TrEMBL record:
Residues 1-22, 56-84 are annotated as: Disordered. It comes from the Bacteria. This is Uncharacterized protein. Residues 1-11 have a biased composition (Basic and acidic residues).
Amino acid sequence: MKDVGRSDPFKPSKKVASNHAVDQATLACRAIMEQEALAREKKTARLRQLRLERDAAEAELGERPAAAGRPRTKKPSSKTDARR
């Protein structure tokens, strides 16, 4: 009656080699994701600082930058082209 086939819930199970490989892959993945997150935060902070400096310089000059590119012109609609 002692060995009924149930395992003790408090006894840690033995690690299998395949579980160890999964653990290593998980750890490597987490390390990579953490590095990418830190790099992303660093880039965001740098771009935010540059934007704030640019806005402050524009405020001092009291001017806004002109829209880039050439001015847009109206194109004739396809309905008027079909009538001609």
